[in-house]
Design brief:
8 helices; globular; single chain; 0% strand; mainly alpha
Length: 199
């Protein structure tokens, strides 16, 4: 049964290995699209949502390319830029918090640890919300649901934290490598959300 499904997914004359390499290449390309669309900084949720939808179509063997990615990005951007702005505001608050820790204020280490943990949780919830986005969806509802899933599915959330760490480390080593890894994180987020939905 598993072999029959694999053959049905790969199409005529295409091996499962070739299909996996094609998906890997699609992840790299999607990472580039996400990075370019996220250049204005506040557009990162919309860019990630469009990338996740593109990879979802690819996994479902539906047609889709740059045109569909761009249409999804524009639709997600209508309210998604507010989510991006809120994310940068949260980062600024945590940065001030960390500065207070370094200044030696009483209770600083605890406040700093709480602030950094909350920022990481918010980033994971943002990724999970973007992976569930679809045209017409409310970002507020998506974020509320993603926040619950972040807590109720710690294994998936830790996987995404690891993915974010890989992006940061890759970008630190080589910026183009970090861009390519973004697509893999988008694919991982789609997989984590699918896994949670099937539970």
């Amino acid at each position: 049964m598993t072999e029959m499904r694999a053959k049905a997914r790969t199409g005529p004359g295409e091996s499962p290995l070739a299909e996996r390499f094609a998906l890997f290449a699609e992840c790299l390309l999607t990472g580039v699209w996400i990075a370019v669309a996220a250049l204005p900084l506040v557009t990162w949720p919309a860019a990630f949502a469009a990338g996740a939808r593109h990879l979802g179509r690819r996994l479902a063997h539906e047609r889709g390319g740059l045109r569909e990615f761009t249409a999804d990005f524009r639709a997600a951007l209508r309210r998604g830029w507010l989510v991006g702005l809120a994310g940068w505001a949260a980062l600024a608050v945590v940065w001030v918090d960390v500065r207070a820790v370094r200044a030696g204020l009483p209770g600083g280490p605890l406040a700093g640890a709480v602030g950094v943990s909350a920022l990481i949780a918010a980033a994971v919830a943002g990724l999970r919300a973007a992976a569930r986005w679809h045209p017409g969806a409310s970002w507020r509802a998506l974020l509320a649901g993603a926040g619950r899933r972040t807590v109720l599915d710690p294994a998936g959330s830790f996987l995404l934290v690891g993915g974010l760490a890989v992006v940061v480390c890759s970008a630190w080593f080589s910026a183009p490598l970090g861009v390519a890894v973004l697509g893999a994180v988008a694919a991982a987020t789609v997989a984590v959300e699918e896994r949670y939905a099937r539970r």
